[in-house]
Amino acid sequence: MYKNSDFIYDAIFQLHQIADVVADVDSNRKEYDAIATINDIQFVVLSKPEIRTSNKGLVFGEIDDLKKKTKKPVVAIAKFIAADIAKELKEKGINYIDRAGNAYIKQGKLLLFVTGQKAEKPANFNQSRAFQESGIKLVFQLLTQPEDLQLSYRNLAGKTGIALGSVSIIMKELEYLKYLVKAKNKRYLKNKEQLLERWIIAFNDVLRPRIFKKRFRFPGKNNYSQWKSIGLDKVQGRNIWGGEPAAAILTNKLQPEIFSIYTNGIWQQLASSLKLIPDNDGDVEILSMFWKEDEETEKLNIVPPLIILAEIMSSGKERNIETAKLIIENELQHIKW
């Protein structure tokens, strides 16, 4: 259910002013975020604080799901839509409006395209400590191991490698942001869908660039079709598949195009052992592990499903979005989507 419709009204008002259309919003709809009426055409609204590379896969997936649930056309409305994402939305034929009034609407005889309106990018979306490096690690632990919510701050610090003082601050921020509540001496996560989406954005924008080491390519073309036989376990340290290869192993539904490898060892030694060739445009990448493995993913030699989801969703590729839906349904049932 939509919780704060102010920016939807702002976006519709701006569109009305700029494009001289008759527009209105009804946000009192339990089944949808809102219904927007533009020149007598009703649109089901999908609302997002931001739409950018980090969460575009989520948005595309949710739009596809909405289209299956309603016969009405769908429009994405956001406070901010990155310019490159707006272009991609238009190319995909997805209706959108941002708070500044930039828009693409194509439905029947109605065609609107507004661009060049100055959009105010939210500067503080990930500024909270809960969505900086330490917070991302702690929220990851709480989302993947919900039973850890009941641990002492000291034990949480030990499991995540985060300073005790930081754990205390982050937990208080999660309470302030209404993602964490206390009841009868127990802690519970609240608004988990929103928390998950913010975590995915923060992981891709903040943490992943910091743990990324270098990009490479395999020494020969044959290695791309035989990637499963590459001996990651023969190199010193713990080396496992992430991203598309991990999704392929987990679901058996994907042929990887980008090969992500996570390691807790010396990444230069891993690259040398696999005879990887440095290439800034290569499709093999090495990253550092930041979590403690559980037995399930350890057996499969892949990163946890939540990291797989974050990585493949950020691509926005249709085949990855479909695979991500399988991961949500089969691996992340405890997070209500």
Short description:
The chain has 337 residues and is an alpha+beta fold. The chain has helices spanning 6-19, 56-69, 83-91, 133-144, 153-160, 164-176, 192-211, 222-225, 243-251, 267-273, 295-300, 305-313, 318-331, and strands at residues 23-26, 34-38, 41-51, 74-81, 95-98, 103-107, 110-114, 180-183, 186-189, 212-217, 239-242, 259-263, 277-278, 284-288.
Helix-strand layout with pairing:
Elements: H1 6-19, E1 23-26, E2 34-38, E3 41-51, H2 56-69, E4 74-81, H3 83-91, E5 95-98, E6 103-107, E7 110-114, H4 133-144, H5 153-160, H6 164-176, E8 180-183, E9 186-189, H7 192-211, E10 212-217, H8 222-225, E11 239-242, H9 243-251, E12 259-263, H10 267-273, E13 277-278, E14 284-288, H11 295-300, H12 305-313, H13 318-331
Parallel strand pairs: 3-4, 4-5, 12-14
Antiparallel strand pairs: 1-2, 2-3, 5-6, 6-7, 8-9, 10-13, 10-14, 11-12
Task: Write structural notes for this entry.
- By secondary structure, the protein is of the alpha+beta class.
- 41% of the residues lie in helices and 21% in strands.
- The longest helix is centred in the middle third of the chain and has 20 residues, at 192-211.
Number of helices: 13
Order of helices and strands: HEEEHEHEEEHHHEEHEHEHEHEEHHH
Strand residue content: 15-25%
- Cα Rg: 22 Å
Principal-axis shape equals globular
How do the strands line up in the largest sheet? Answer: 1-2-3-4-5-6-7
Helix residue percentage = 40-55%
The largest β sheet comes out as: 7 strands, mixed
In the predicted model, the low-confidence regions spanning at least 5 consecutive residues are: none
Arithmetic mean of pLDDT: 88
How does the helix and strand content classify structurally?
alpha+beta
Q: What is the CA–CA distance across the termini?
A: 12 Å
Total strand count, please?
14
* Multimeric status of the protein: single chain
Number of spatially distinct domains: 3
